[in-house]
Amino acid sequence: MTRLLPSDDDRPVLVLGPNPTPNGGMHLGHIAGPYLAGDVYARYQRARGRKVIFTSETDDSQTYVVASAGREGITPEELCKRSTALIQEALSAIGISIDGFGPFDQTYRATVLQYFGALHAAGVFRLKTVRLPYLERTGEFMVEGLIEGDCPVCLTTSRGGLCETCCHPNNFDQLIDPHSTINPDDKLTYREATIMVLPLEEYREQLTEYHDRLAEHRRPHIRQMLAELLSRPLQDIPITFPLKWGIDPQFPEVPGQVLNAWLELIPAGMFTTSYAAAKLGRDTVPGELWRRSENLRIVHFLGFDNAYYFCLPHIAMLMAHGDKYVWPESIINNEFYELESSKFSTSKGHVLTPQELLEEVPRDVARLYLALTAPEYQRSTFSRTGLDKMAEERLVGPWNQLAGILAKAVANAGGDAKLPVSAGGRQRVQLMLDRFDLGYEMPTFNLNRSADTVLIQIDRLRRLAVKLDGTSPEDEPEAWGDLFCQVKALLALASPLLIDLVDAARGAGVFDELPEAGPLVAGAFDLTEVTAFAPPLLAAAG
Question: Does the N terminus or the C terminus of the chain have fewer Cβ atoms within 10 A?
Answer without folding.
Answer: C
